[in-house]
Amino acid sequence: MVHHMFDVIVEKMREHITLSDDDIALLSTCLEVRKTRKSQLLVEPPYPANAEFFVTKGCLRHYFLDENGVEHTTAFAIEGWWMTDLQSFFTGAPSKYHVEAMEEGEVIKLRKEGREELFTKIPALNIYFRILYQNAIISQNERILNVLSTTADERYLRFIKKYPALENRVPQYLIASYLGITPEFLSKVKTRIAAKKS
Amino acid sequence: MVHHMFDVIVEKMREHITLSDDDIALLSTCLEVRKTRKSQLLVEPPYPANAEFFVTKGCLRHYFLDENGVEHTTAFAIEGWWMTDLQSFFTGAPSKYHVEAMEEGEVIKLRKEGREELFTKIPALNIYFRILYQNAIISQNERILNVLSTTADERYLRFIKKYPALENRVPQYLIASYLGITPEFLSKVKTRIAAKKS
DNA sequence: AACGTCCAATGAACTATATTAAGTAAGCAT
DNA sequence: ATGCTTACTTAATATAGTTCATTGGACGTT
């Protein structure tokens, strides 16, 4: 078993499926390593999202830019996570969401064609990605419920509980954007919560 | 080609994949027709959701019952749609969401085991369900964005545009629950919108 | 050191939505 | 018919969240 730069991703896959050395060799031919700079766009409307990105270092952000120029952050991705604009990636339609690298870092890029090729040559990968998408459904489901049924205070508390790594890594105004509130109100939320603790 | 009670579902599948007569015969053995009464629960916490339901007649509702006894409606399904608590169905964990028939009607039930069997015997079905779940991701994505970034007026307008069939079929307080507002406020929203039109 | 930029924090005034309470109209059991 | 319940409306008041203007700190540039 050769040690190489795709170890992290292979490890993740092996949590769900078994892969032979041959599989891994084939896999390697379809993956591309990309360095990211701060604020670099990996998916940029209206160009279709033609790849998925696996984060090995750094942090990505998925956001929508509305008609008024306001950004709505819909998801974050850190080390070990996949991200792209699935809507565009699945349908081939122009992307409506941006995917942006928030830090210098590194991602592994899997293009659509490479992915298709892998699906036919390594059928087990279908299972891996199916599980990935199932988990996406589940977590989006929870997010919808959260935003419908809980107050901003509660949402903030759950956010820092679920993504403790992000609290001090991501600027406040982006956390606010993810929570669906203004930065000013997030500030108020935080002081209110801090007051309660004492 | 024999005409039978599963026609609707086969038709839907054939929008995406091709099915032989043999496939359909096999499919039939895994599907069960169920009449629904008003307020009947198809998925009831904490019992795991062990099947998916395809609506042939009537209307289903997916909702969460919170600690305060308040129901939060997260989705509707009408004729031609599939529904279950995917979270529980995928993981096998106890269901946290209710799936309720809102009217007398009819659903076609596909159990987990039947579904697995079909996946191995009719591989193309993997594609059909993959597309189904992709669409679920896309529509949940939109819903999250909507509820985070738009006002209640806007959400109501989009709702009646997207689901015109539901506006007069579902009680107002359930639409309010779906929009994440109180019935009282929905009432205000509606009069406000009506006033604007004139 | 002086300057500009970016971000976090704060307070005041404002808007959107919730809560409570009361009234109305329709459906249904007695 | 009578009353009971359930869904919807309206209005008064309260709370959650926004907007705008200001301040101060951290950082990079000249």
TrEMBL record, chains A, B:
Residues 34-119 form the Cyclic nucleotide-binding domain. InterPro entries: cNMP-bd_dom (IPR000595), cNMP-bd_dom_sf (IPR018490), RmlC-like_jellyroll (IPR014710). SUPFAM superfamilies: cAMP-binding domain-like. It comes from the Bacteria. This is CRP-like cAMP-binding protein. The lineage of its organism: Bacteria, Pseudomonadati, Bacteroidota, Sphingobacteriia, Sphingobacteriales.
